[in-house]
Amino acid sequence: MKYDENNVFAKILRGEIPCKKIYEDNFILSFYDINPQKKIHALVIPKGKYIDLDDFSEKASSDEILGLLKGLRIVAQKLGISTDKGKGYRILSNISEDGGQEVPHLHFHLFGGEKIGKMVQ
Ligand code: 5GP
After folding, report:
1. Which partner for 89 in 3, 45, 81, 93 could form a disulfide, CB atoms 3.0-4.6 Å apart?
2. Could you give the CA distance from residue 121 to residue 119 in angstroms, rounded to a whole number?
């Protein structure tokens, strides 16, 4: 499958659609989900054009992989839900149609700020 340049997160990265930004660096952008499912619901996306985690694992550079993994923790810290603050959170990434993915640009959901509950409902 080819990366869709017109997906909503590509538009956010290009600044064509606004977002409520949490954090940004060379590798990632993080912003609040427009339709929060928990008290805190953030999204973390790589700046590179990757469809999903499979695509990213196959094609991303070591720096991009490291930048994304480290970035997830930085965002959790910024949100005050990291373990060093005595809290916790859940990270989820939907992959393709069977995984329930709607936006075809790799993204991680960060849920926190309350007990997140059952893993799969
Ligand atoms: P998926 O189902 O692909 O894992 O999750 C896509 C997420 O993107 C959903 O939780 C949805 O609410 C969020 N979303 C869709 N469009 C926008 C948007 O324009 N802005 C923001 N901030 N989130 C969006």
Report:
1. 81
2. 7
